# Entry
Amino acid sequence: MKLVNTLLATIAAAALGSCAATPPQTAAPAPATTQPAASARIFVAAANPLAAEAGMAVLRRGGSAADAAVAVQAMLSLVEPQSSGIGGGAFMTYYDAATRHVTVYDGRETAPAGATPDMFLDDNGKPLPFAVAVLSGRSTGVPGAVKMLAFAQEKHGNLPWRELFGDAERTAREGFIVSPRLGRFLASSLYPESSAPDVRAYFAKPGGGLVGPGDRLRNQAFAAFLDRLANEGPSALYTGRTAQAIVDRVHQGAHAGTMTLADLAGYRPVEREAICGPYRAYLVCVPPPPSSGVGLLQLLMLLSHTDIDKRGPQDPRAWFQFAEASRLMYADRDRYVGDPAFVSVPVKGLLDPAYVAGRAELIGERAGPPPAAGNPPGAEKAGADRTLEPTGTSHFIVGDARGNVVSMTTTVESIFGSGRMVDGFFLNNQLTDFSFTPRDADGRPAANAVAAGKRPRSSMTPLVLLDGDHRFAGALGSAGGNAILAYVGKAMVGAVDWGLPMQDALALPNLIARGAMFSGEVDKFPPAVLAGLAARGVTVRPGQGEDSGLQGVILRNGRIDGGYDPRREGRVLVETVSVRR
# Structure
C-alpha cells in the first residue's frame, strides 16, 4: 500500500494534465562504434496472426513502433476487413521512451461539410432504421486512419514509408486463407452489410456462393492500391482517382452522402495530450474526447471506492460492484462526451475526486433503476443521447527495440463498415456513431449530435500504463462498440486488482452494464456468480455482436506478460533483438 499511496500523492495533482516526465540527465554517449550490442524486446499483439507477423517483420528490420503500426493496419485491412481498414479511422496512444511522454494521435473520421443535424431523420422527423442508415452513403465519414498513421510515422518512423506495405501487398496479390471468424460473419444474417452488393461481389466464390473458412481469397485491387499508397503517400487515398471513387460511391443510392473531394483533401489528424489518472500502482493514460477515455478513467476511479481489489473472479459482489460502477460511468459518458471542438466536455469535472466519490456512494447493495447522469463541475446542460454504436473494431499493440510503444484501436465501425467498397477496401459507416436524434424532448442538443466537420464520439480507448517513474508498464485496448469501456475495465481489474496473467484477465467473462441492460457471457460465469448477481438485482442476459477483441501487455518482474482475446484469432509475438546503444 505504501507504493500505491505514494504514487497517488505524487501524481494526483497532475493526473489530468500532460503525461510527460523529464527523464534523468545522462552523460553524452560514446560513439556508437564503441558501444557493445545490448538486447531489447520487441513485441506485437494483434487480432490476426498475419497482421502480428507483418508488424514483427518491420521491427526485425529496425523499424519503429510507428513503422510497424502502418504494416499492421495494412494487413488488418485485408485479412480482417469486417473490423478495421484504411477506409476507416483510429486513435493511437503513443509512448515515447526517450521523453517518457504519452501522445495521442486522433485519426477519427469527420462529417463532411454538407452534413446536417437531421441527416439520419426521415421525412416525418423520425430516426431512420439503423439497417437503412448504415448501408446508405450518409453513413460514411471522411476516413482518418491513413493520414493519422502517416503523421505519426513521419514523426516517429525509422524506415521509409514506401517500405511498410510489402507484406500486405504480397498477401493481397497471392491470397490468404479465409479464417473461421471471417467466414462466420460472411455466413451470418445478423448484419445488414453481409448482404450488401459490394460484400457479395468481393467474397463471391467461383461457381456460386461466398468463400468460407479454408478458401483462398485474393484482392488484386487492394494490392494495386497499396502499391500506389506506398509510392505516393496518403495522397493516393485523399486526392486523385481513389478520392473520386470514394465520392462517387457514397453519392449512390437512396439517402446519398454529401462527401466531396474537398472534404477528403482537407482532412487533418489531430495531435492531442493524453489524459492520465492513477489506478493502484499505475498511471493510466488514455485519449481525450472525442474518445471515451475519460469514461474509462472515471470507471477506474469509481472502482477504487470499492473493495473489488480484495475480492476475485468467483465473488458475485465483485461483479456487482463492476456492474454498478459501469452504469454510473455510462450515464455520464453518454450525456457529456462529444467532439471538444463543438461541445464543452467537462473532463475535469467528470474526474473530480469529490464528484466521483459522491457518485460512488450510489453503489449500494442492490441494483435499482438505471442511474441518471450526474452534474459534474463545469458541465453544461446537454440533451439525452440516442447513439447506437454497434460492435466492431480491432486493437493492436506494438513495442520497438527503443522502448517506444503504440497502443492503437482502429475501426470501420460496423461489420464491413457501410458495405461499400472502393479499390479493394471497405468504406466506414462511422457517421452512424452520431446520435440519430439531435435534440431531446426538451429541445436540448445532444453532445454527440451531427454537425459538419465534427468527429463522432468514440468508445475506442487505447491505453498505456506508466509506473511511478513514468516508464512504460503496459498497454491495453479492445474492440466492441460501446462495450469497449466495459471490456477494457474488466481486463484492468483482472490483471491489476486480481493479479491474473494477462491472458487469463482477457479471458474473464464479459459483463456490460449500461442503463437497464445487463448483458454478458452467461455461459462463462460460474453458476454461483450468476445466482449472487441475481440476488442483487442483476440478471445477466446473453449479448450479441462481435464481442470483445482485447489485446494487452503488462510488465511483470521485467518480463512482458502479453495476451490476446480468445474470442478472436489473435497472436502475441515477443522477440529479443540486439541493438546498439
